[in-house]
Amino acid sequence: QVQFAESGGGLVQPGGSLTLSCSVSGFFISNYHVSWYRQPPGQGREWIAHHFSHNGATAYLDSVKGRFTISRDNAKNMIFLQMNDLKPEDTAIYYCNRSPLVPSWGQGTRVTVSS
Fold first, then answer.
1. What number of other Cβ atoms are within 10 A of residue 49's Cβ?
2. How far, in Å, CA of 48 to CA of 25, rounded?
3. Shortest CA distance to 31 belongs to which of 49, 14, 51?
4. pLDDT tens, position by position, for the chain (115 residues)?
5. Of 9, 48, 103, 109, which is the most exposed, with the fewest CB atoms less than 10 Å away?
6. Is residue 104 helix, strand or coil?
7. Phi then psi for 89, rounded to 5 degrees?
């Protein structure tokens, strides 16, 4: 059974940093591209970052490019998102998943950026 367990969210002031973690079970992430998504309050879920399995290349939503970094630890079967210079518009519930998407999303981890 595929499961994602996101953690590391919290309340942070604008300009602050957080590192999110995603523990994966049910498959080996080394065999898949992986991504982070987020769902701001009252909005739909959006893709924000992608990590390619075959060459380690990354891709980002323009609004987070240069501030967020996606990475993985295949040995621990975990995915990470380092978030720097956080802005109020980054407030959202953050989720991880793979490509192709698995319909069983995790609970997500809530990030609130506010002074």
1. 24
2. 22
3. 51
4. 999 999 999 999 999 999 999 999 999 999 999 999 999 999 999 999 999 998 889 999 999 999 999 999 999 999 999 999 999 999 999 999 999 999 999 999 999 999 9
5. 103
6. coil
7. -75, -5
